[in-house]
Amino acid sequence: MVDPNADTAAVKEEYFKLATIHGRDFQKYSIENTIHLVPVDEEEANRLEAQHQVLDIVFDGKLFFPPVSRVRSVLDCGYGAGSWAVEVAERDPNCTVIGVDISPHMKPDDMPDNFIPQLDDLNEDFTFRANIFDFVHSRMVVGGINKDRWSGYFRDIKK
User: Fold this and answer.
1) Angle in degrees, CA 89, 92, 98, rounded to 5
2) Which of 17, 44, 51, 69 is 20 to 30 A from residue 107's alpha carbon, by CA?
């Protein structure tokens, strides 16, 4: 079983600060560091949920495309509002799903016990040990990964 607290680091306080721009809430850290330039409010959470529902229809309800026989630990990179991660956790209560996102502001209200949200910047090296996840999910994160980070990001999700 994956220990969700192994090798974690202290959370940066600036991750919690908000900036309101044109009546929408943005994570101040993301704006100042040009990481993720989208709101982190309820309206954005609803948009992400609608997007997940559309992709669910397009993908015919499939959450995994590669043939994966036994999934006991999943990492969701950039979990956003948590729709995909929560659905995986609900479908398989024996699977531990760790979701990593830079923003703590859109965490789902109702989370299954086997979904563990963590706060981190995907532009930094991962602190997870190698080979602890059976599956790594990374979808719609292109706007949040800096161009110089991509090769390291792929290395991190592969290990």
Assistant:
1) 35
2) 69
Can you tell me the mean pLDDT for 27-44? 92
Name, in order, each residue with C-beta under 8 angstroms of 114's C-beta and a sequence gap of 6 or more: 89, 92, 93, 94, 95, 96, 97
Structure tokens at 73: 């630990």
Please give the DSSP secondary-structure letter assigned to residue 125: P
Rounded distance between C-alpha atoms, residue 2 and residue 41, angstroms: 30
Q: What is the model's pLDDT at position 9?
A: 63
In angstroms, how far is CA 127 from the centroid of its own chain? 15
Please name the residue that has the structure tokens 């220990």: 3
Write down the pLDDT at residue 35.
86
* Mean pLDDT of the region 62-77: 90
